[in-house]
C-alpha cells in the first residue's frame, strides 16, 4: 500500500501496462506524470517543445507498434488538437493513451474548459478515474482498449485527481507487449488524402458502435445499490463528494464516460425514483443522457462554474429538496478584512529587475490608480509562466495574457491596428520555444516594429523546473544540444538584438529605452538564472536604519524579502537571495542597502 | 474502529507545508488508516497562501475537508491560521507558529497585518484551544531554519492518534541522510514545545 498522487499512480500504471515512449510538455496539473515516467530508465521519455509535437511524436511511436503515452494539461490539447484528430482517424498500432489533466476552479490555468467534449468531437473512448487507485487500475484498460479498437484513448483527470494523494495497491508488474518495434507501409491507414480519409471515417464510426457495446460491460463502470429514491450518475472526483453527501442513495459510477453505456444507464434510471447527474463543469453526462430520452436533472441543481466539493453538493441538494433542510450544517464565513496573499515572484527572481524597469518606464502605476480605463503609455502583452505574476502589484506590467505564445502575435496586431503607444511583448524562454518562435517569424516577416522581451531564466520555472531545448539537458537527464536563442533570432532576421543581464538595472533601462525608441523590431534577451535553482545564497542585504529615509523605493521591487513592519523597512535575511541579485542595493537612492 | 481525523495545514509557499502533509499521510497509512490528502500546487505555490487537506479514517471519500469539519489546524504562519478559520470544527485544536510574514500589500502600506487579538478573535469563533509556539526561533536555535515543517509535525504528533515509532520511521524514510538527524531532533523539539505550551494554557 502506498500513498500516491493521481499523477504518480498514472505513471506507475502506465509503466506496468508496458508504456515504452512517453512525451509531454509541462503544464499544471499534468507535469508530474512525465517527471515520474522519466525516472524509469527502461522507457523513452521526452519533454517535447509543445503539446502538438508531443502528440506527433506519440503518433510515430504508436505507428511503430509500441505503447505510448502523451500527457498535457487541458489547454495543451487545444495546441495538440490537430494531430489528436488525425490520430483518431488513422487509428493506432501500439496503444496510444492521451492524458488531459483538466483544471476545474482554474487553480493554475487561463480557462476552465471541459475536455470531455474532445472525446465526443474526436470520436475516441474516454476514461475518468475517481482516485489514485482508479487511475492505476484504469491505465491497463486504457492501453488494452486503444489496441483492441484501433483508437487513441482520452484519459481525463482533473486537478483534484492529479494532485490528491490516496492509497494505492499497485498489484501488477511491468509487461511489454511488443519488443520488436517496426513500421509497415499502409497508405490507406496513414496517408490521409481524401481518397483514404473518407473510408477511414467510416471505420471510425464502426469503431464507435463496437465501443458502445463494449462499454455496457466495462468492469470499471459500477452500480452501487442502496435506497432507490435517489439514483446518482457520476464520474471522476465528483463521485467522492456525492458519496459523502448522499450516504443512502444508489450510484452509477462511470469510469468510461465516452461512449456512454446506454442500456446500463436506462436500466439504472428505470429502477430509481429520481435520476440525478453530479458532474463538474459542463452538463456532459446530463446532456448525453437526456439525448437517450431519459428524464434526468443535474446542472439545474449543481453549479457549472468552479470545482465541486461536499459542501456545494450538499447545499445545492438541500436547495433542490433532495436532502432535508435539517442536514444543513452551519458554515462560518471566512474571517473578514484579512490581507490577501497572492503568489509572488521569488526573492532573487530574474524577472524582478525588468518588471521594475517596465513599471517605471511605462508609468504603469498610474494605470491602476485611475478609475477610468486608460491607454497605457507602453502596452505590454504577456504570456504564460511565472512572469504572468507581473500582472499583480506592485509591478502591474501586463495588459494581456491569453494562451501560450500569444503575446507576440497580439503585440503585432495592436501595432498593425494603429495604436499610438509602443508595444512590448514579454515571453519566457520555455514559452518562446513552445510557441513564441512562429510569432517572432511572423512579426519579422510582416515588418513589425514591436519590442520582444525574452525572459531567459534557463528553465520552465512555473511548473517546477523542467528542461527544455535551451537548457541542454533532456527529460531523462542526458546532455544534449543547447538551442542558442541569439542565433535563432538572427536566423529569423532580427536585426536589433540585445542580451542584458537580468540583475543590472541601469543596463535594463538603457536597453529597453533604446529598443522602444527604435523604428524597427527589436528583441531583448533578459538573461538570469531562476533563483530557485541557484543554491548558493551569500551575503543577504541589510538596510542601514541610520541612512534609510523610509522612501519606499525598494518596496516597489515587490521582493518578498523586503518587508515593512512598524514603519521600518527591513530585509528578511532568511529570504534574501544575496549576491546573486543585489537589485535593491542598486536602487536605493540613499545608498542605505549593502551586504 | 479507528478514530477519524481531518487536518488542515496552512502556511506560505516555501515553508514546507506539502512535505509535512505527505509525512502525516505516510505515517497514517503505516498505522493502518485510509488516507486522502490534497495540496495547493502550481501557480499558487510561489510565495502565496498555501493549504493542504489531510483526512484519516477507516474509509475516506472526498479528498477535500468540508468547511466546519477540521479537527486540527497546523498553521505555519499566523495570518494563514485566521484565513482558514471558517474550516474549523467547534472546539478544534489550532497550533500556530508565531511567525509573521507580511504579504506585499502590507509591506506596501496598502493593508494592515492583523494584530494577534484580531487573529485570535477570528479563530475563537470556533474554538478556545489555540496554541501559539515560536517555531522559527526554536529551529534557529537548533541550527537549521528549514526544519520548521518537521518541528511543526512534532507539535502535531502530540494530538495525533499515531505511534511515535511510526513517525520516526516515516520521517527517516522521507528525508535524506545528511538532514535526517537534525529533522528528527526538530520533531522531538516540536513535541516537547507543545507539551509545555499545553500545560501552560490549560
Structural notes for this entry:
The complex is a heterodimer of chains A (595) and B (202). Chain A is 35% helix and 17% strand. With 595 residues, chain A is α/β, with parallel strands linked by helices. Chain A has four domains: 2-215, Rossmann fold; 222-327, Rossmann fold (3-Layer(aba) Sandwich), CATH 3.40.50; 352-533, 3-Layer(aba) Sandwich (Rossmann fold); 542-594, Alpha-Beta Plaits (2-Layer Sandwich), CATH 3.30.70.20. Chain A has a seven-stranded mixed β-sheet with strand order 3-2-4-5-7-6-12, with helices on both faces. Chain A has a five-stranded parallel β-sheet with strand order 14-15-16-18-17, with helices on both faces. Chain A has a four-stranded mixed β-sheet with strand order 9-11-10-13, sandwiched between helices. In chain A, α11 (238-245) packs across α14, α15 packs across α20 and α17 runs parallel beside α18 (429-445). The longest helix of chain A has 21 residues, at 194-214. The mean pLDDT of chain A is 97. Chain B is of the alpha/beta class. Chain B has one domain: Pyruvate-ferredoxin oxidoreductase, PFOR, domain III (Pyruvate-ferredoxin Oxidoreductase, domain 3, 3-Layer(aba) Sandwich), CATH 3.40.920.10. Chain B contains eight helices and six strands; from the N terminus they run βαβββαβααβαααα. Chain B has helices at 17-30, 78-83, 104-107, 116-124, 135-142, 148-157, 164-174, 177-201, and strands spanning 5-12, 34-39, 49-57, 70-75, 88-97, 130-133. Chain B has a six-stranded mixed β-sheet, with helices on both faces. In chain B, α1 packs across α7, α5 (135-142) packs across α8 (177-201) and α6 crosses α8 (177-201). Chains A and B meet through β8, α11, α14 and β20 of A and α1, β2, α2 and α3 of B.
Amino acid at each position: 500500500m502506498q500513498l500516491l498522487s493521481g499523477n504518480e499512480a498514472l505513471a506507475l500504471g502506465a509503466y506496468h501496462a508496458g508504456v515504452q515512449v512517453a512525451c509531454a510538455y509541462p503544464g499544471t496539473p499534468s507535469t508530474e506524470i512525465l517527471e515520474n515516467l522519466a525516472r524509469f530508465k527502461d522507457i523513452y521519455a521526452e519533454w517535447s517543445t509543445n503539446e502538438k509535437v508531443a502528440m506527433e511524436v506519440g503518433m510515430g511511436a504508436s505507428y511503430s507498434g509500441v505503447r505510448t503515452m502523451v500527457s498535457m494539461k487541458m489547454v495543451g490539447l487545444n495546441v495538440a488538437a490537430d494531430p489528436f484528430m488525425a490520430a483518431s482517424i488513422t487509428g493506432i498500432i501500439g496503444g496510444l493513451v492521451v492524458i488531459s489533466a483538466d483544471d476545474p476552479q482554474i487553480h493554475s490555468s487561463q480557462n476552465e474548459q471541459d475536455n470531455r467534449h474532445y472525446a465526443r468531437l474526436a470520436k475516441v473512448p474516454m476514461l475518468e478515474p475517481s482516485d489514485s487507485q482508479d487511475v492505476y487500475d484504469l491505465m491497463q484498460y486504457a492501453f488494452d482498449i486503444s489496441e483492441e479498437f484501433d483508437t487513441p484513448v482520452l484519459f481525463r483527470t482533473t486537478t483534484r485527481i492529479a494532485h490528491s494523494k490516496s492509497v494505492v495497491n499497485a498489484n501488477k508488474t511491468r509487461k511489454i507487449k511488443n519488443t520488436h518495434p517496426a513500421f509497415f507501409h499502409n497508405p490507406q491507414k496513414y496517408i490521409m488524402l481524401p481518397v483514404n480519409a473518407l473510408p477511414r471515417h467510416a471505420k471510425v464510426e464502426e469503431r464507435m458502435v463496437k465501443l458502445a457495446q463494449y462499454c455496457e460491460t466495462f468492469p470499471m463502470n459500477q452500480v452501487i445499490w442502496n435506497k432507490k429514491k435517489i439514483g446518482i450518475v457520476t464520474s471522476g472526483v465528483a463521485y467522492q463528494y456525492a458519496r459523502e453527501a448522499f450516504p443512502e442513495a444508489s450510484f452509477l459510477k462511470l469510469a468510461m464516460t465516452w461512449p456512454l453505456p446506454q442500456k446500463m444507464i436506462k436500466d439504472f434510471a428505470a429502477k430509481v425514483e429520481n435520476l440525478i447527474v453530479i458532474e463538474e463543469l459542463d452538463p456532459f453526462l446530463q446532456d448525453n443522457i437526456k439525448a437517450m430520452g431519459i428524464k434526468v436533472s443535474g446542472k439545474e441543481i449543481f453549479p457549472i462554474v468552479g470545482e465541486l466539493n461536499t459542501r456545494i453538493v450538499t447545499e445545492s441538494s438541500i436547495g433542490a429538496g433532495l436532502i432535508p433542510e435539517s442536514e444543513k450544517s452551519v458554515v462560518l464565513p471566512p474571517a473578514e478584512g484579512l490581507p490577501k496573499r497572492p503568489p509572488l515572484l521569488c526573492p532573487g527572481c530574474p524577472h524582478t529587475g525588468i518588471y521594475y524597469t517596465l513599471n517605471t518606464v511605462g508609468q504603469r502605476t498610474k494605470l491602476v490608480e485611475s478609475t477610468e480605463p486608460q491607454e497605457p503609455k507602453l502596452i505590454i502583452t504577456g504570456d504564460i509562466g511565472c512572469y504572468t505574476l507581473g500582472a499583480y502589484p506592485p509591478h502591474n506590467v501586463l495588459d494581456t495574457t491569453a494562451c501560450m505564445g500569444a503575446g507576440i502575435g497580439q503585440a503585432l496586431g495592436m501595432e498593425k491596428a494603429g495604436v499610438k503607444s509602443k508595444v512590448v511583448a514579454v515571453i519566457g524562454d520555455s514559452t518562446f520555444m513552445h510557441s513564441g518562435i512562429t510569432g517572432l517569424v511572423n512579426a519579422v516577416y510582416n515588418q513589425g516594429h514591436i519590442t520582444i522581451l525574452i525572459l531567459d531564466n534557463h528553465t520552465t520555472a512555473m511548473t517546477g523546473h523542467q528542461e527544455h531545448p535551451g537548457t541542454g539537458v533532456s527529460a531523462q537527464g542526458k546532455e544534449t544540444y543547447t538551442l542558442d536563442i541569439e542565433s535563432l533570432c538572427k536566423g529569423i532576421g532580427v536585426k536589433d538584438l540585445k542580451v542584458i543581464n537580468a540583475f543590472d538595472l541601469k543596463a535594463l533601462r538603457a536597453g529597453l529605452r533604446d529598443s522602444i525608441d527604435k523604428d524597427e523590431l527589436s528583441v531583448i534577451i533578459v538573461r538570469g538564472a531562476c533563483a530557485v535553482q541557484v543554491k548558493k545564497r551569500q551575503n543577504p542585504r541589510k538596510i542601514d536604519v541610520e541612512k534609510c529615509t523610509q522612501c519606499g523605493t525598494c518596496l516597489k521591487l515587490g521582493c518578498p524579502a523586503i518587508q515593512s513592519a512598524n514603519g521600518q523597512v527591513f530585509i528578511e535575511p532568511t529570504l534574501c537571495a544575496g549576491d546573486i541579485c543585489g537589485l535593491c542595493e542598486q536602487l536605493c537612492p540613499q545608498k542605505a542597502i549593502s551586504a | 474502529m479507528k478514530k477519524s481525523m481531518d487536518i488542515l495545514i496552512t502556511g506560505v509557499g516555501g515553508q514546507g507545508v506539502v512535505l509535512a502533509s505527505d509525512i502525516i499521510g505516510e505515517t497514517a497509512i503505516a498505522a493502518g488508516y485510509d488516507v486522502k490528502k490534497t495540496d495547493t500546487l502550481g501557480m499558487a505555490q510561489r510565495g502565496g497562501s498555501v493549504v493542504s487537506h489531510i483526512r484519516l479514517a477507516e474509509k475516506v471519500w472526498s479528498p477535500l475537508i468540508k468547511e466546519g469539519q477540521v479537527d486540527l489546524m497546523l498553521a505555519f504562519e499566523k495570518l494563514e491560521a485566521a484565513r482558514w478559520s471558517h474550516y474549523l470544527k467547534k472546539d478544534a485544536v489550532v497550533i500556530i507558529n508565531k511567525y509573521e510574514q507580511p504579504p506585499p500589500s502590507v509591506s506596501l502600506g496598502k493593508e494592515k497585518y492583523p494584530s494577534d487579538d484580531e487573529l485570535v478573535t477570528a479563530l475563537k469563533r470556533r474554538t478556545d484551544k489555540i496554541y501559539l509556539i515560536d517555531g522559527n526561533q526554536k529551529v534557529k536555535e537548533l541550527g537549521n531554519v528549514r526544519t520548521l515543517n518537521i518541528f511543526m509535525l512534532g507539535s502535531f504528533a502530540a494530538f495525533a492518534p499515531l505511534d511515535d515509532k511510526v513517525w520516526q520511521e516515516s520521517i527517516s524514510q522521507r528525508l535524506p541522510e545528511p538532514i535526517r538527524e537534525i529533522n528528527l531532533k526538530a520533531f522531538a523539539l516540536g513535541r516537547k514545545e507543545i507539551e509545555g505550551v499545553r500545560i501552560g494554557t490549560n
